[in-house]
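Record minuted for completeness.

…
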Amino acid sequence: MTAEALAQINAEIVDCVKCPRLVRWRQDVALNPPARFARQPYWARPVPGFGDPDARVLLVGLAPAAHGGNRTGRVFTGDRSGDFLFPVLHETGFSNQPTSTHIADGLQLIDLYISAVNRSAPPDNRPTPAERDNCLPYLVRELSALENALVIVCLGAFAWNGALRALRSLGHEVPRKPRFGHGAEADVGSHRLLGTFHPSQQNTFTGRLTRQMFLEIFIRARSLVDARARGPGSR
């Protein structure tokens, strides 16, 4: 049922037109691409989640990149953030290959599902609060459908706060809002949240987020799900 539920959610995501500003933006980007993508077709629709329906780790991003997921139809595919992300996922056993270039490139995620708070590329990577709230029910439903998910890796403060809102919507108590930071951890219900700086060029080119820092987050995620699988008391 998990795979069927996720497929239904994704079918609804790709047809979503709840946010007029984002509909216009994602289409305008497709009509006016940079020279390096001038001959390529653009997806120019909301981008669904993807990955292993039995995943114990959920990765939550901000939104698709204008010339990444908005072009290729798969989040973190064909952009610099994905170039930073997937080698680390491959090294830690969460993907079958270290690259994500196009939707038919053979990439498979292992024990990991990738989602986002917003599903359409926003101008300047900044969804409005209303756009966030329009999209959040999709993340809520994904969390409900991913019955084995134990760890939620949040890429940036926007994803961290979105994941907390989604968990609260599912009835999990968040008595005191956990503070975001790289390496931050918080238990909410049966889930452990892990925070990391987003692998954007702004963070990776400046050294705010190094490969080793990022790698350690996914090593930690792996250790947490393996420990929880062994039973209570393991950390």
In short: Helices lie at 2-14, 20-31, 69-72, 80-91, 129-145, 157-169, 201-204, 211-230.
